[in-house]
Amino acid sequence: MNSWDLFVGIVRIVLFFSVVMGLVAYMTLLERRFLAFFQIRIGPNRVGPWGLLQPVADGIKLLFKEDMTVSHANRFYFLLAPAVSVMSVLACFAVIPASPGVVVADLSVAVLYLLAFSSMGVYGILLAGWSSNNKYALLGGLRAAAQMISYEIPLALSVAGVLVLAGSMSLVDIVKAQEGLWFVVKQPLGFFLFLVCISAETNRTPFDLLECENELVAGYQTEYSSMKFGLFYMAEYAHILLASCLVSLFFLGGWNGPFLPAPLLFLIKVFLVFAAFIWVRATFPRIRYDQLMAFSWKVLMPLGFLNLMVTAVLAVYLT
Amino acid sequence: MARALIRGLALTFKTFFRRPVTEVYPDVKRTLPERFRGRPVLLAREDGRPRCVACGLCEKICPSLCITVVPGTGPDEVRTLRHYGLDLGRCSFCGLCVEACPVDALAMSSEYELAVYDRDALVYAGDRLLAPPEKKNDTHGKGEGNR
Fold first, then answer.
1. Residue in A121, A86, A91 with CA at minimum distance from that of residue A107
2. For residue B101, what is the domain's CATH number?
3. What is the DSSP track for B69-99?
């Protein structure tokens, strides 16, 4: 690799990183406004026109808050946890293509890379829960670990159906394979499984047992303040953005579509998926912990296997 | 189960497009009911002096003990008002003083933005007690909520 390639690579990383961070900041505002509309409220509208400067104000506030560490916390892991959370999510964005050329790295094993890094996120949460030396935080961390590990299996199974159809693990190839017909049509069950599992992976409301403010205060984030708390929030929203990107890449045809330029189409789809996530959050109550586990192991897993088997058999016989 | 979930989603989808119930308070003030009980005010005669004859009935009936009436002697030995004090920090806006007043010298205004930084400023006396002539209805706004 010569120095020019290195330079281009770094510029790409910085560009992608800033776009992702900007999107993440404004997703918090979008979620707050949309949730407000769902609840017949108005939402934050005082900072700037339509509240557009709210994320900036939040960021400044978080930076200037007192940075506390609990006295009996394990300092090293306490500091490491938010970093691991953010890093594991941001690393995933390296392989997300917005259109054929617009990607940091088009890996041939992108899906494997994604699964590996997104399961690293559990470590951040578990470390945070454990190092805080707080029973609520620990409970939240344990729940998170159990939940994310349980839902990773049906998640991987539903992705496997897509991989069988696309015949590749590169996200660019997967999107190219959907040029005629989106996989949501060929894989309706897989789409449903993926949606459910990814919202459990991102700890969104029907599955937000690790945060669960009425039982666990804020779960693993209880003892965090200032920008460390901000980092967890960034990780959470970056995770949701990643989830929305993946849903549109795997099932909604990525940047395929009529009329509009490719990256714009992709962004619109990501936005719609994210809006659907907010919609679900505004509608459903949190489910009980044993129901959560039973749902993953007894319902989603068999369905995932069924989906994979049917897909594999059909893929062999129809080609 | 799936039907229930979908019905839930449909319901929240409908509420998404409903107009918010939030009142954007300092920007738009809601219409007050006609008989809203705000700060009690002393009504003035045409010459600008209070109509109060310092009978002290309001002071007597006040359940919160927030009214102080000090009578004085005017020209021609007439009982007149020397000092009228109203401690809004104690007032419960019950309106009994207004009902007790035999000469209609008291009224409940529609003023409700009465917060101050100092407790002493809550004790109204003298001209502050008089009803601001045309300002009486200015708290009535258009009670529309908008986004």
1. A91
2. 3.30.70.3270
3. EEEEE-GGG-EEEEEEEEETTT-----HHHH
pTM strictly above 0.90: no
Shortest Cα distance from A181 to chain B (angstroms)? 26
Is the ipTM reported for this complex over the cut 0.85? no
| Three-state SS at A70 | coil
Domain that holds residue B88: 2-137
CB of B74 within 8 Å of a chain A CB? The answer is no
- Tell me the mean pLDDT in the region A139-161: 86
Q: Which of A28, A76, A15, A12 is nearest to A232 (CA)?
A: A28
Show me where the domains of chain A are located. 7-318
- Measured between beta carbons, the chain A residues lying within 8 angstroms of B24 are 42
Point out the residue among A41, A45, A279 whose CB comes nearest to the CB of B12: A279
Q: Does B18 contact A45 at a Cβ distance shorter than 8 Å?
A: no
Distance from CA of A296 to the nearest CA of B (A): 16
- Provide the 3-class DSSP secondary structure of residue A301: helix
Residue type, A207: F
What is the 8-class DSSP label of residue A193? Answer: H
Q: Where are the alpha helices (DSSP H) in chain A?
A: 3-38, 54-64, 75-92, 110-131, 135-166, 171-176, 183-186, 188-201, 213-216, 226-250, 262-283, 289-294, 301-318
User: What's the pLDDT tens digit per position in B110-119?
Assistant: 888 888 898 8
Instruction: Dump pLDDT digits (tens) for A157-174.
Output: 898 888 888 888 888 888
